[in-house]
Amino acid sequence: MKVKLASNYGFCFGVKRAIKIAEDYKNSSTMGPLIHNQDEINRLRNDFNVGLYTNLSDVKDHDTVIIRTHGIPKDDLKNLRAQKAKIINATCPFVTTPQQIVKKMSKEGYSILIFGDADHPEVKGVQSYGEDQNDVHIILEPSDIENLVFKNNKIATVAQTTKKKEKYLEIVNALILKNKEVRVFNTICDATFENQDAARDLSKEVDVMIVIGGKNSSNTKQLHSICLENCADSYLIENETELQNSWFLNKKLCGITAGASTPDWIIQQVVEKVESQN
Amino acid sequence: MKVKLASNYGFCFGVKRAIKIAEDYKNSSTMGPLIHNQDEINRLRNDFNVGLYTNLSDVKDHDTVIIRTHGIPKDDLKNLRAQKAKIINATCPFVTTPQQIVKKMSKEGYSILIFGDADHPEVKGVQSYGEDQNDVHIILEPSDIENLVFKNNKIATVAQTTKKKEKYLEIVNALILKNKEVRVFNTICDATFENQDAARDLSKEVDVMIVIGGKNSSNTKQLHSICLENCADSYLIENETELQNSWFLNKKLCGITAGASTPDWIIQQVVEKVESQN
To answer: Keyword set for this entry (chains A, B) (predicted)?
Structure first.
């Protein structure tokens, strides 16, 4: 069976980079799970002796600690330094950018608005860089703006990297109508949407489509649903053991894509098994 | 006849201010017509000896020259100074703001986008404050963005004061999607829209509505059209001589509004004549 991979699939740039860093720093530990995939965390522990801390207080002097892609709050970083940990920063550069923007704009006297989920580790990290925490506002919906009281009439805005641009525009539009200056930083990362676009394109040109990822992962289910729109024979699997021979009968070309938390080695195992089909 | 004036009508803040300045500087001259109303220009000439220059080269040493509400290009101002003219700046503060923003942002390395009419004196003045004229872009339609090449990926935007906010948002939205930073300055003045809103409200509560302004003035015709939606007996006149007794038969309350180029003294003459109706 001939196989074609989507032009974008699986891990984004920031996650790939963080895994490479973890592999380079054997015997280190990550602060919180590096990614949302237990198989990959097991692999890093077994093959590279990369451990996992869940609490800052567990870190011992001179430990090597990897900061994960989401980043961590400024004070946590300070505490890690105080504990004399060797810090390896695997914060995604696309997350470091809004952290630095919030720090700079806040110093320059702008009120800060973050479009994102206040409970998400990335947003907590970005938020922490505001000088005046009472003038850093986090909202998820354009309608939430009505309840905000900014200290300044000049506002700087950033967005959580995985948010949708359309909603970000709705929010900044409402701000522009009410304020003298709105400094809009487009910090949204296209990775999630690039995977979706690529899955859409590929599913239009193949006979059968395999989507690899967690059955409970919302971004994987989203990919599957997009593929089904264009290719009725689209299947969602977690690994190569779920592949069924019958799916490939009388098919010529199999497209493959994967959710954002699916490691390359799982994808590779699927590719090889599909290629071995008649 | 009882009369009620719209809560906003006629001259905006900037024009009222400029006329006051002209009255305060007897024997001066304006650079270009102060406002688009010949009756008012005649009044200033007859009552205050305020003259009119159409060309910079006509200005004589030590003349007192009034800069009109739209402002003038930076180099023209420089030339006036070189001619040792006494300069009285009646540029509307709402126009000075975008001039200063373009100057500052341009110095800080931003590409400049102006939403406005490239041929309008206000826009020509604002544009002139850009450091690098090849990186100051003027557009009227969101679709015009496609043809622009900015030198930087950080862009500062201002709008001509009389433009519509909805279209400005469309333009900045397109920019936000394509650029890392868009610094949006809301320089639109609400005066025109406030007159329209007030005319709409008033026309709903009166028996008869009078709109005073030039029959060819687009903003006056717009006011008339808004009033007609709510009050069938809405009339457009240029001055009190056009009022007809029959309009007020069996009416109780007459609403009055005026276009943006209608001087108060013409409005006052209409009010007095309507009030004298039975």
So the answer is: 4Fe-4S, Iron, Iron-sulfur, Isoprene biosynthesis, Metal-binding, Oxidoreductase
pLDDT value for A186: 95
- Catalytic residue among B23, B40, B108, B122, which? B122
Q: How far is B177 from chain A (nearest CA, A)?
A: 7
Task: Tell me the per-residue pLDDT of A140-186, one tens digit each, with 9 for 90 and over.
Answer: 999 999 989 999 989 999 999 988 889 999 999 999 998 999 999 99
Shortest CA distance to A181 belongs to which of B166, B142, B123, B156? B156
- A185 chain-B contacts, CB cut-off 8 A: 180-181
Span A49-87, pLDDT tens digits: 999 998 888 888 889 999 999 999 999 999 998 888 899
Distance (Å, rounded) from C-alpha B228 to C-alpha B210? Answer: 10
Highest average pLDDT, of A189-193, B160-164, B167-171, comes from B167-171
Residues of chain B contacting A168 with CB distance shorter than 8 Å: 176
Q: What is the distance between the alpha carbons of residues A132 and A107, in angstroms, rounded to a whole number?
A: 9
- Our answer to whether residue B122 is catalytic in this structure is yes
Mean pLDDT, rounded, for B33-42 = 85
pLDDT of A106-140, one tens digit each?
999 999 999 999 999 999 999 999 999 999 999 99
Q: Phi-psi bin for B144: left (phi > 0), alpha (psi -120 to 50), beta?
A: alpha
Q: Please state, in angstroms and rounded to a whole number, the distance separating the CA atoms of residues A177 and B173.
A: 13
Paired strand residues for A183: A156, B183
Q: What percent of chain B has pLDDT over 70?
A: 100
Report chain B residues whose CB lies below 8 A from the CB of A159.
none
Q: Identify which of A13, A148, A12, A136 has the alpha carbon closest to the alpha carbon of residue A74.
A: A136
Q: Is the reported ipTM for this assembly greater than 0.85?
A: no
CB-CB under 8 Å, B177 with A180: no
Pairwise CB contact (< 8 Å): B173 & A169: yes
Nearest CA-CA distance, residue A93 and chain B, Å: 14
A170: nearest CA in chain B?
Answer: B173
From residue A12, how far is each of A166, A259, B56 by CA, in Å? 21, 10, 61
Question: Which amino acid is present at B192?
Answer: T
Q: Do A181 and B181 touch (CB under 8 A)?
A: no
The domains found in chain B, sorted by start residue, are: 2-8+191-275 (3.40.1010.20), 13-92 (3.40.50.11270), 94-184 (3.40.1010.20)
Structure tokens at A168: 């970000």
- The partner residue sitting opposite B176, judged by closest CB among A180, A181, A184, is A184
Judged by a CB distance cut-off of 8 A, whether residue B181 touches chain A is yes
